[in-house]
Amino acid sequence: MVETGHFALVLAFALSLVQTIVPLFGARLNNQRLMAVGGPVAVSGFALTALSFVALASAYASSDFSVASVWENSHSLQPLIYKITGTWGNHEGSMLLWVLILTFFGSLVAAFGSNLPATLRANVLAVQGAIGAAFFLFILATSNPFTRLNPAPIEGRDLNPILQDLGLAVHPPLLYLGYVGFSICFSFSVAALIEGRIDASWARWVRPWTLVAWMFLTGGIAMGSYWAYYELGWGGFWFWDPVENASFMPWLAGTALLHSAIVMEKRSALKIWTLLLAILTFSLSLLGTFLVRSGVLTSVHAFATDPTRGIFILCILTLFIGGSLALFALRASRLTAGGLFHPISREGALVLNNLFLTTATATVFVGTLYPLAVEAFSADKISVGAPFFNLTFGPLMVPLLVMVPFGPLLAWKRGDVFAAAQRLMVAFAAALLVTLVTALFIDGASVFAALGVGLAVWLILGALTDLAVKSGFGNVATGIMVRRLLGLPRSVFGTAFAHLGLGLTTLGIVGTLCFGTEKILSMHAGETVELSGHTLRFVGLYPAQGPNYSEDRGRFELIGASGSAIGEMSSAKRFYPVRQMTTTESGIKTLWFSQLYLSLGDEGKDGSVVVRLWWKPLVTLIWGGGLVMMAGAAMSLMDRRLRVGAPSRRRRQASAVTSAGLP
Amino acid sequence: MTRKQKRLSVIAGGLAFLGAATGLTFYALGQKASYFYMPADLTTASLQPGQRIRLGGLVEKGTVERGQGATVAFSVTDNQKDVKVSYTGILPDLFREGQGVITEGSFDANGVFVADSVLAKHDENYMPKDVADRLKAEGVWEESKSE
C-alpha cells in the first residue's frame, strides 16, 4: 500500500507536467483537442494524489513503523483519531495535504468549468498544473513521506504532545483550504495575463473562489487561535507569532481582494488592481508556506530544520511570484480600464477599504520579515512583538472599522455620505450611549476600553442598519418589510453577516483585553480564591493515567452565592514519557459568552500548587465572530448570481460566445 | 477639476497615506523592537533601567528558587557571566535547569532582571534558535548525541 502511494505520487507529478504543458500549447495554437486534455488530467491527478494520501493515512492508522514519517510522528498507544490526524501533523504529511487540496481545487475547475471560455479554462488548468508540479517535485525530492526504514523499528517516537488534540484534525485542513484556495484566483489572474484580456466570466468566476478560500481561511485562523488559546495554557488568543502572521497576511490581502472583486464584477472597474491583488494574495500564501515549512522561524510549527527544503521552497516562491509579477508588468497595460466613479461612492468606499487593508498587510509583512532581514544582514537579533503591531496595525484598523458601516449604504457611482450618515443615526446614538455608560458605570474602564466597546456596537448595529434600510424598515408595513427582507439578494445578507461578525470579534477582543482580570497564586487543597466575582475552591491534585501519558489533575469547584458548589473545573500537568515532554491542559468554564480560564503550574515542596486564573469577559465572541463571518461568506456563495451552473441568461450568452469561437 | 487633476489628487492622497503608514512603521520598529542579549553582552551594552530587552542563555544549575507565592528566581548564564532573573507566573512546561531559555523584560534599579515572559520552546534536542546560535558561537554548545 505504501509503495502504491509513492507510485501514485510520482504519477501525479508526471500528470501535473502534462497538465501544465499540453493545455498551454493548446490555448496558444487554439487547438481544441490539446486544450481538452487539461480537464481529465486534472481530475486523474487529484484521484492519484488522493490515493497517495489515503495510503499514507492508512500507514499512520495501522502504525506501520517501517515508514520513516510514521515512526517519527506516531506511537502505537495513541488514540486512533490522533494516529490519523498525525498524518498531517508533520512536515511531509502536511505537504501532501497541501498538494491534495491543490489538485482538488484544480479538478473542481475542470469539473465545473464547462461554461468558461475554452482558452481561459485551459490556461487556468495549466497554471494550476505548474504550481502542482513544483510542489510534487518538492515533496518527492526533499520531503518524501513514503521513505522506508529497514529494519523497521518496533515502536514509534510519538506525535508531538501539543499536537495530540482535536485542533489538529480541524485547523490545518481548514487553513490549507484557504491558503490553497487562493491558488485558483492566482491561476485565473495569470491566465488572464497570458491571454491579455479579462471578460465578464472572469470576474464571475474569481469572486466565488475568493469567497470559498476566504471562508476557509477565516475558519482556519479562528480555529487555530482557539486551539492556541486552550492548548498552550497561556490564555492568549493571538501572539503575533510569525507563524500566525503568515496566515494573517493572506487573510488581510484576501479580504481586500474580496472587496475589490465586487467592484470588478459589478462595475468592471479596478480590473488591473484586482488582478494584482489576486497574485499578491496567493504570493503571501506561498510566503506563509515558506516561513512555516522551511524552518527559518523558531516556533512550534516549524518542525522542519533541513535547509535544502528552505532553499527549494524559496526557488518555487521566486519562480511563481517573480514570474507572475513580471507577466503582470508586461501585460497589465493591455487590459482596458473600466467604468468611472466619483470618490464618494460604493466604489470609492471599497477603494478606501483596499488602501487600508493592503497597508495593514504591509505593516504585518514588515513586522514579520524585518527580524529575519536584520538577522541575515547583521549579527543583531531583534524580536518584534505585540507592542510593534499595536502601534502600527492598530491605528490602521480603527479608522477602517469606523468606516465599515458606511460602505454598504453608499450608492454605486455617486453616493451621498450625509444620507448614509442619517440612516446610521440610530446606530451612532446607541454606540455613543454604550460608550458613555461603559466609561461612567463600569469599574476600571479606561477611555480606550469604552471607545472600543462603542466601536464594536457601532459595527454590529451598522451591519443590522444595512439590512433594515434595504428592507425598508420604518417606511413600509411590517408584512412588506419581512417580504422585502427575505427577498434581498443573499449577498446583501452575506455582507451584513460578515460585518456583524467583525463587530462581534471586535467586541470579544476589547472585552478580553480591557476588562479581563487575572491572578497568580500558590494554593493548598481546600483553599479558595476569588476573581471578578467568581469563587473557586481547590479540591486537590489527583494523579491519573491516559493511553500514552500520565497526569496530575488539579480539581476545582466553582462556588455559588449560597456557598455550595455550582460547577467543576480542572487543569492538568501531563507527562508524555516517549518524548519526555510535559504539557499543561488548561481548565475552561464557559459562562454565557465569557470564560473562566485556569492553568496549573509547578508543585511546591509543601504540597501547594501554583495556579494561574483568568477571567475573560466575552472571549468566546472572538471566535464566534469568525463563525458569523464564515456564515456571511457562505450566504454570499449561495447568491443566485454566483451559483455555479445556475441556469441564467448570462450563462447561455457566455456559452454562445464560446461556441461562436469554435472553428 | 479635470480628470487628470482628479486622478493626480487621488494618487497623491494615496501616497501621503502610504508615507504616513511607512513613517509609523519605522518609528515603531525603532521604539518597540526588543534586542536580544546574552549575559556576557550586558557589560558592554548600556541599558537604562526599564528598557525592554530579551535575555537568553541557560538556566544555571542549582539557582532556581521558589519564593513567596508564584515568584521564581533563577540565574541565566552563558558560562561567562550570569544574571539574576525574577519572574512571577507559571514557568513554561519545558523550563528546566541547565536548559536554554529566553526571558523578556527589563532591569530594575537593583540590577535584577524582572521578566514578564519566559520562553522555553525546546524539547530534548532543540533549543531556542537565538540561544543555540550564540552558544555555538561561544563554544559552549554541546551537540546533541546523534541517534
UniProtKB/TrEMBL annotation, chain A:
Kindly give the Pfam families that the UniProt entry links to this protein: CcmF_C, Cytochrom_C_asm
User: Where does this protein chiefly localize?
Assistant: membrane
A cellular component term, taken from the record's GO annotations: plasma membrane
Domain Cytochrome c-type biogenesis protein CcmF C-terminal: start-end pairs: 314-640
Q: Which InterPro entries match?
A: CcmF_C (IPR032523), Cyt_c_assembly (IPR002541), Cyt_c_biogenesis (IPR003567), Cyt_c_biogenesis_CcmF (IPR003568)
Membrane topology term reads: Multi-pass membrane protein
Q: What keywords does the record list, in alphabetical order? A: Cell inner membrane, Cell membrane, Cytochrome c-type biogenesis, Membrane, Transmembrane, Transmembrane helix
Signal peptide as annotated in the record: none
Question: Transmembrane residues, as ranges?
Answer: 6-25, 37-61, 95-112, 124-141, 174-194, 206-228, 248-265, 272-291, 311-330, 351-373, 393-412, 424-442, 448-469, 490-513, 618-638
Q: Biological process (GO) annotations?
A: cytochrome complex assembly
Domain Cytochrome c assembly protein, by residue range, is 88-294
Where found in the cell? Cell inner membrane
Q: Which GO terms describe its molecular function?
A: heme binding; heme transmembrane transporter activity
| Superkingdom classification of source | Bacteria
Report the family membership.
Answer: Belongs to the CcmF/CycK/Ccl1/NrfE/CcsA family.
User: In UniProt terms, what function does this protein have?
Assistant: Required for the biogenesis of c-type cytochromes. Possible subunit of a heme lyase.
NCBIfam families found in the cross-reference section: nrfE, PRK10369.1
Protein name (Swiss-Prot/TrEMBL): Cytochrome c-type biogenesis protein CcmF
Which species does the entry assign this protein to? Mesorhizobium qingshengii
From TrEMBL, chain B:
> Does the record bear Heme in its keywords?
yes
Q: Which residues form a coiled coil?
A: none
Taken from the record's topology, the Cytoplasmic segments are 1-7
A GO BP entry is: cytochrome complex assembly
What's the protein's topology in the membrane? Single-pass type II membrane protein
- CC terms in the record's Gene Ontology section: plasma membrane
Topological domains on the Extracellular side lie at: 29-147
Predominantly, its location class is: membrane
Localization: Cell membrane; Membrane
Recorded family membership: Belongs to the CcmE/CycJ family.
Protein purpose: Heme chaperone required for the biogenesis of c-type cytochromes. Transiently binds heme delivered by CcmC and transfers the heme to apo-cytochromes in a process facilitated by CcmF and CcmH.
Against NCBIfam families, the record matches this protein to:
PRK13254.1-1 (NF009727), PRK13254.1-5 (NF009731)
* Full protein name: Cytochrome c-type biogenesis protein CcmE
Organism placement in taxonomy = Bacteria, Pseudomonadati, Pseudomonadota, Alphaproteobacteria, Hyphomicrobiales
Q: Which gene encodes it?
A: ccmE
